[in-house]
């Protein structure tokens, strides 16, 4: 049976599917045989055949080597194939195998290129098993190149053909892809299954507490009883349904009344209380919030004793880094605490302590992942000469190398006047100029040579303020490096709408607060505090998200890899009980900030 199928899945199915392959129509030729077990005999047999007869045997041998996890041998065998005499069916098989090998090498763009071969116009005429194998390779490639919606859409088409563990894993991937998708990309499509998934994501993300989420899931199941996800609910949602909700009754908001950065503290407090009052106005069961002043704390023990006497069962704060450090050094805390900053130490902190803040390290990791998905492999970094710059560089370097990338060169800047020279040094412009001068001396004549930058750098990772970025971007052009893609942190965005033409095209990570202006909580906050529309909006958003986290810590702790979607990003709990944020990717365009979607990648 030949069934047209637009599908995606994971490579774990490939061996099973090839074993079940059947014969395509005569016009397309035969798929390679799969009955062989002895690779050496198969290669010997292929070597005795003419080119047209050997193609299928070599492809079968390459696939046998790949299934034995010998990717190098599989590639070597593929290089022996004369594709000029291959049939369309063999071309599809070969390019699918090439895509799988590219994915194993972490080269998803190469995989997509292989899967774009003209022979795939005949894919719907091949046996179902080959269709699935080809499309499941495309699934991983789309996901690895940062195209979650396309990957999820194809997996949804695949779902009816999967059973057991494969069906379960496919559902889990669909859920994760769509759960992490920005809300602006989840508009109705007219595709029943996809829209049902969108509705499930929306209903669970809009609920602020565990009890509300459980109720939302039940309502969705009643509305979509025949949806594939209703027949096989994602594991995190099944676990969530089984949790016995623990209602937070009283929250202590611990913030200073006198601080050098009191405007930041005020924004945090107002954002937290705004989210609290919005929840009350919507009829939610809310905890009592007590505000405590940390400015004159002489003993954290005395504070916790007072909080316990007042019936507090969750502390949100402190914000001061030294106080968070004191809490992190203890073996345990008397009351569960969500600190609004991070301690310098990450390990051996009390199990009652959770930490949340706007960590620049999160943005460094986002930049690394975005660049990797875009096919970049060799990076240069330009960061300030400061403790902040060192922290960001360390986070970027560690994550970039974990992904498999290489950091070619690094420069630290501190004085605007030195920037051009430092950028020239980063891209070895002076060496290029010196080589031209040496050539002139050798030839004893003037040489019309233009300085050229080094070519082993794929992109530049940048951490800089808006003012610094406005100097750096033109300097790159002046130093013949304007063709180098720049991936920056949100520090380049002032947040006040003051966007300069020098920054046009600069890509950077950003929190949803600055992207999704139609969010109801954001609209409420900016209406009551107009200053929240500017750069201080980051801290109003953090305060609102702290309120949400206070009601979802139980879920984040109990369910592995679960998340809360907030105004500062998608929030997840790492093993050290620190909240990590996933952010949107944006660019400056026409004096505005524009979110870059998956079809707008370089």
* CATH homologous superfamily grouping of the largest domain: Response regulator
Biggest sheet strand line-up? 7-6-8-9-10-14-15
Silhouette? globular
- CA gyration radius, whole angstroms: 28 Å
CATH class of the largest domain: Alpha Beta
What distance lies between the first and last C-alpha atoms, to the nearest angstrom?
40 Å
Measured by DSSP, the beta-strand proportion falls in 5-15%
State the total count of DSSP E strands. 15
Number of continuous helical runs: 23
Q: What is the averaged pLDDT score? A: 87
Can you summarize the main beta sheet?
7 strands, mixed
**Helix fraction bin:** 40-55%
Based on secondary structure, the structural category is alpha/beta
Structure characterization notes:
This protein is α/β, with parallel strands linked by helices and 602 residues long. The protein folds into four domains: 11-145, Tetratricopeptide repeat domain (Serine Threonine Protein Phosphatase 5, Tetratricopeptide repeat, Alpha Horseshoe); 183-241, Serine Threonine Protein Phosphatase 5, Tetratricopeptide repeat (Alpha Horseshoe); 250-358 and 520-578, 3-Layer(aba) Sandwich (Rossmann fold), CATH 3.40.50.2300; 361-518 and 586-600, Rossmann fold (3-Layer(aba) Sandwich). It contains 23 helices and 15 strands. Strands 7-6-8-9-10-14-15 form a seven-stranded mixed β-sheet, with helices on both faces. Strands 2-1-3-4-5 form a five-stranded parallel β-sheet, with helices on both faces. It has a three-stranded antiparallel β-sheet with strand order 11-12-13. Helix 19 crosses helix 21. The radius of gyration is 28 Å and the shape is globular. It starts with 13 loop residues before the first helix and ends in a 7-residue tail after the last strand.
């Amino acid at each position: 049976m030949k069934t047209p199928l637009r599908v995606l899945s994971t490579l774990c199915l490939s061996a099973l599917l090839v074993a079940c392959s059947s014969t395509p129509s005569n016009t397309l030729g035969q798929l390679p045989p799969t009955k062989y077990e002895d690779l050496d005999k198969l290669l010997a047999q292929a070597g005795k055949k003419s080119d047209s007869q050997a193609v299928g045997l070599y492809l079968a041998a390459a696939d046998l080597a790949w299934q034995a996890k010998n990717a190098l041998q599989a590639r070597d065998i593929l290089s022996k194939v004369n594709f000029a005499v291959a049939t369309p069916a063999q071309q599809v098989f070969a390019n699918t195998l090439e895509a799988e090998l590219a994915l194993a090498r972490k080269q998803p763009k190469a995989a997509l290129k292989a899967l774009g071969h003209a022979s795939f116009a005949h894919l719907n005429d091949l046996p179902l098993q080959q269709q699935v194998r080809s499309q499941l390779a495309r699934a991983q490639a789309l996901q690895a190149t940062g195209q979650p919606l396309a990957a999820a859409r194809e997996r949804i088409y695949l779902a009816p053909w999967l059973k057991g563990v494969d069906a379960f894993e496919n559902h889990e991937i669909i859920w994760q892809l769509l759960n992490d998708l920005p809300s602006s990309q989840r508009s109705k499509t007219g595709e029943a299954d996809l829209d049902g998934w969108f509705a499930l994501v929306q209903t669970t993300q809009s609920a602020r507490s565990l009890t509300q989420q459980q109720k939302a899931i039940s309502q969705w199941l009643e509305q979509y009883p025949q949806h594939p996800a209703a027949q096989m609910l994602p594991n995190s949602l099944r676990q969530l349904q089984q949790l016995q909700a623990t209602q937070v009754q009283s929250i202590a908001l611990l913030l200073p009344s006198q601080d050098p950065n009191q405007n930041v503290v005020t924004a945090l407090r107002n954002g937290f209380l705004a989210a609290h009052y919005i929840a009350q106005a919507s009829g939610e069961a809310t905890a009592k919030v007590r505000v405590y002043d940390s400015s004159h704390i002489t003993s954290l023990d005395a504070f916790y004793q007072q909080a316990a006497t007042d019936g507090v069962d969750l502390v949100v704060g402190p914000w001061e880094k030294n106080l968070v450090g004191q809490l992190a050094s203890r073996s345990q805390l008397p009351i569960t605490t969500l600190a609004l900053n991070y301690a310098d130490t990450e390990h051996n902190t009390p199990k009652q302590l959770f930490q949340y803040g706007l960590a620049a390290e999160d943005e460094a990791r986002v930049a690394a992942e975005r660049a990797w998905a875009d096919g970049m492999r060799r990076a240069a970094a330009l960061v300030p000469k400061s403790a902040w710059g060192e922290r960001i560089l360390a986070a970027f370097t560690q994550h970039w190398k974990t992904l498999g990338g290489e950091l070619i060169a690094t420069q630290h800047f501190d004085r605007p006047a030195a920037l051009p020279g430092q950028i020239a040094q980063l891209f070895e412009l002076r060496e290029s100029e010196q080589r031209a001068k040496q050539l002139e001396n050798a030839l004893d004549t003037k040489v019309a040579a233009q300085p050229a930058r080094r070519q082993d750098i794929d992109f530049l990772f940048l951490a800089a303020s808006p003012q610094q970025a406005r100097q750096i971007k033109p300097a790159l052009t002046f130093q013949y490096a304007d063709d180098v893609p720049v991936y920056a942190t949100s520090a380049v965005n002032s947040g006040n709408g003051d966007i300069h033409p020098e920054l046009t095209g600069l890509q950077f990570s950003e929190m949803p607060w600055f992207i999704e202006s139609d969010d109801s909580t954001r609209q409420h906050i900016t209406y009551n505090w107009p200053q929240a529309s500017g750069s201080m909006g980051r801290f109003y958003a953090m305060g609102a998200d702290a309120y949400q986290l206070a009601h979802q810590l139980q879920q984040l702790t109990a369910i592995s890899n679960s998340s809360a979607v907030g105004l500062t990003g998608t929030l997840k709990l790492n093993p050290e009980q620190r909240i990590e944020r996933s952010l949107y990717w944006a660019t400056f365009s026409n004096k505005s900030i524009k979110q870059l979607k998956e079809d707008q990648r370089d």
